[in-house]
Specification:
Elements lengths: L2 H11 L11 H14 L1 H19 L12 E4 L8 E6 L2 E8 L10 E8 L20 E8 L5 E3 L17 E13 H5 L2 H29 L6 H30 L4 H30 L2 H5 L1 H13 L6 H13 L4 H5 L7
Parallel strand pairs: 1-4, 2-4
Antiparallel strand pairs: 2-3, 3-7, 4-5, 5-7, 6-7
C-alpha cells in the first residue's frame, strides 16, 4: 500500500466526521481542513469518502459504506467522454469512460453518475415504450471497483499538482452497478451544497499550510516591512475565511434542509476561499521569492496541489451564478449576508 493510501486509511480509522447539518458542522469542516493542511492529497481523498458517507446516508443507504473501504465520488459531466448505463434482466451495467476520477486506482468503491436513456428504465421496457420518450438523463450509481471491467486509463492526468490523487479517467465495460437515485436526487439536496462547502474547507486547510513559511518568517526579527505586510494580509484573509466557515456552519446546523440558502452559501463561501487561496499562493511567493519553491519539496508540492485543487471552483462563472441563484430562489441579500436577521 502506498503512503498516501496508508495515510488516508489511518485517517478513516480515526472515524469520519459528523454529517453536515447534524449539530457540529464546524467540527466536520475543521477536520477536513486539518487533514488537508497536513497533506493536500490525503485531505482530498478523505473528503470524497466523507462526502460519500453523507450522500448515501441522505439517500437512505446508511449501511452502504463499510469499514475498510475507500469511496470516491465521480460525478464530473463534461460533454465527452460519456459513461452510459443500461438495464437488462440481470440489472444495471455501466459502459464507457468517466473522466477526472480522484483515487482512480486507489478507491475500492465509488458513487458514479452515468447517462441513462428513458427507455432503458425498467418502467419503460414494455411494448408501449416510444422512442420519442427516449430523453437521456443522469442517474447516480454505486460501483464496486474490484468488479471485472473497471480499468483506470493511464496517462490521463498530466498536471504536476494533485498528481498523487490519481485523478485520471476510468473505463467501464459492462460493469454491474446499483442505482441510488436520479441526478436530481443527488443534486437537489441541501447536503450537496454543504458538501461543496466541505471542499472549500479543504482549500482553506491547504492554504493555511502554504502560508506557514511566510507567517513563520514574518515572526523573526529580521523580517522586512514588505514581508510583514504580505504576512499581515495573508493572516487577515485566512482569519476572515475561517470566520465565514464558522458562521456558515452555524447556519447549516440551524437550517439543514434549506436548499436555496445552502446553494447561495456554497457559491459565496467557495468564491471567497478560492480567491483567498490564490492570494495566499501569490503573496507567499512574492514575499519569499523562489527559495521555498526551489528548495522545499513539500512546500512546492503544496503550492502545485492547491493551485489545481481550487480550480474545482468555476471562478467568475460561479460568482455570476450567485446573484442568479438569489433571484431564482427569491432570496434577499440579507438572507445571505445577515442570515436573515435584521436589515442594514
Amino acid at each position: 500500500m502506498n503512503k498516501i493510501l496508508a495515510d488516508v486509511h489511518s485517517c478513516l480509522r480515526a472515524g469520519t466526521p459528523t454529517l453536515p447539518g447534524h449539530g457540529d458542522t464546524i467540527a466536520r469542516w475543521r477536520r477536513l481542513a486539518g487533514i488537508t493542511a497536513d497533506h493536500t492529497v490525503v485531505g482530498r481523498l478523505y473528503e470524497a469518502h466523507a462526502d460519500a458517507v453523507a450522500i448515501t446516508a441522505e439517500l437512505g443507504q446508511h449501511e452502504l459504506v463499510r469499514p475498510g473501504q475507500l469511496w470516491g465520488v465521480w460525478a464530473a459531466e463534461p460533454p465527452t467522454p460519456v459513461l452510459r448505463a443500461q438495464h437488462s434482466g440481470q440489472g444495471w451495467t455501466l459502459t464507457g469512460t468517466k473522466p477526472w476520477c480522484s483515487g482512480a486506482s486507489l478507491c475500492t468503491h465509488a458513487l458514479v453518475t452515468a447517462t441513462v436513456s428513458t427507455t432503458d428504465t425498467p418502467a419503460a421496457q414494455g411494448d408501449d415504450a416510444e422512442a420519442s420518450d427516449d430523453v437521456p438523463h443522469k442517474v447516480l450509481f454505486a460501483v464496486d471497483l474490484s468488479s471485472p471491467g473497471v480499468t483506470p486509463v493511464p496517462d490521463t492526468w498530466h498536471a504536476v499538482g494533485m498528481a498523487a490523487s490519481d485523478s485520471g479517467w476510468v473505463s467501464f465495460e459492462q460493469v454491474h452497478a446499483t442505482p441510488l437515485g436520479t441526478h436530481a436526487d443527488y443534486l437537489d439536496r441541501a447536503g450537496f451544497w454543504h458538501g461543496g462547502i466541505g471542499v472549500a474547507a479543504c482549500w482553506y486547510g491547504a492554504a493555511r499550510a502554504v502560508a506557514a513559511p511566510l507567517l513563520a518568517r514574518a515572526s523573526t526579527p529580521s523580517a522586512s516591512p514588505i514581508l510583514r505586510a504580505h504576512a499581515g494580509a495573508v493572516a487577515a484573509a485566512l482569519s476572515a475565511s475561517w470566520a465565514l466557515l464558522e458562521r456558515t456552519a452555524a447556519s447549516v446546523d440551524a437550517e439543514p434542509t434549506n436548499l436555496p440558502l445552502a446553494k447561495a452559501q456554497a457559491f459565496a463561501v467557495r468564491t471567497l476561499i478560492d480567491r483567498m487561496a490564490a492570494e495566499v499562493i501569490d503573496r507567499t511567493g512574492r514575499a519569499l521569492g523562489p527559495g521555498p519553491l526551489a528548495s522545499d519539496a513539500a512546500h512546492a508540492q503544496r503550492v502545485a496541489d492547491l493551485s489545481i485543487y481550487i480550480r474545482q471552483s468555476h471562478a467568475e462563472t460561479d460568482e455570476a451564478a450567485l446573484p442568479a441563484v438569489m433571484a431564482e430562489d427569491g432570496l434577499s441579500w440579507d438572507d445571505l449576508i445577515r442570515d436573515g436577521h435584521g436589515t442594514w
